[in-house]
Write a structure and sequence with these properties.
heterodimer; A: alpha/beta; 39% helix; B: Heat Shock Protein 90; 5-stranded antiparallel beta sheet; 27% strand; globular; binds adenosine-5'-triphosphate; binds magnesium ion
């Protein structure tokens, strides 16, 4: 499974694992959506610390989850992005709709 | 011509082949001794073009994707990604950032990403016939006399 979900009181942290392309983005979305649709967390943290490669499918993943979270006024935070992933996020303008978190020292 | 260093691959448009395509191309280009960044630029651009064949060109069927990679001694890499899919009606419009026909899970950023990571992006397409995307990048080789 390319996602590890960590549940906290009012947030869900999704640790994304491995390369993100159209194929794996689909698997990630299928893991995340049922969990957040059930729990309606205030915050979804997408953690990219373990993502060595991402194409624009990753932007679709971010924007799609943002739209879902907005249904219950939740927000999306991006964490652990490499310089490259940040470049692609910047190119998309998605950084205007999400929050950013600095790379965490300890996960969980 | 025998002095041309070129490789070709062809594979069906299963989404699970995306990582294979990236890996095959970067393994071939590696002989130019590119930096990690240069190699990732090429991998990302190729990933965009291959994904477009899979999800747009062959939207509701599986078709073949043809890739040719050529490298020249000066370090120029040329990657051609070709499909025999639905084609693009209006190429300039398709290349505009954020334009997508792919629905809510697509950002419309593929061509913008290709353009920002490669030196040249050329698209030739004919509706009903298919699309060829040509990507070029100059590798600043670190080897003297390579
Ligand atoms: N090989 C192709 N065959 C047919 N149509 C294509 C092809 N490549 C791109 N297109 C068209 O061009 C549009 C823009 O492509 P682009 O890669 O920029 O964005 P996208 O694929 O829609 O979204 P993203 O790449 O961000 O996931 C597509 O929505 C599609 O309509
Ligand atoms: Mg695309």
């Amino acid at each position: 499974m390319p996602v590890h979900l960590i549940y906290r009181e009012e947030s869900v942290r999704a640790e994304l694992i491995g390369e993100i392309d159209d194929y794996t983005a689909r698997q990630m979305r299928e893991a995340i959506d049922p969990a957040i649709s059930r729990l309606h967390p205030k915050k979804l943290i997408l953690d990219f610390s373990a993502v060595p490669f991402m194409d624009s499918s990753g932007i679709g993943l971010i924007i799609g989850r943002y739209k879902l979270m907005r249904l219950w006024e939740g927000e999306v935070t991006l964490s652990g992005m490499s310089r490259r992933i940040e470049m692609i996020v910047k190119l998309s303008g998605a950084e205007k709709i999400v929050r950013k978190e600095r790379r965490e020292q300890h996960a969980g | 011509m025998l002095d041309k260093n070129e490789m070709k691959i062809a594979f069906p448009s299963f989404s699970s082949n995306e990582s294979f395509a990236r890996a095959a191309i970067s393994a071939f280009v590696a002989q130019l001794d590119p930096t990690v960044d240069e190699l990732t630029d090429i991998k990302t651009a190729v990933s965009e073009a291959v994904t477009n064949c899979i999800i747009h060109a062959y939207r509701d069927r599986i078709g073949m994707i043809y890739i040719t990679v050529a490298i020249d001694p000066a370090g120029e890499v040329t990657v051609k990604i070709r499909d025999k899919g639905c084609g693009i009606e209006d190429v300039p419009k398709a290349m505009e950032p954020l334009f997508t026909t792919g629905g809510s899970e697509r950002a419309g950023l593929g061509f913008a990403v290709m353009q920002s990571f490669m030196n040249r992006v050329r698209v030739r397409s004919k509706p009903g016939v298919g699309t060829t995307v040509t990507l070029k990048k100059k590798i600043q080789s670190r080897r003297i006399g390579a």
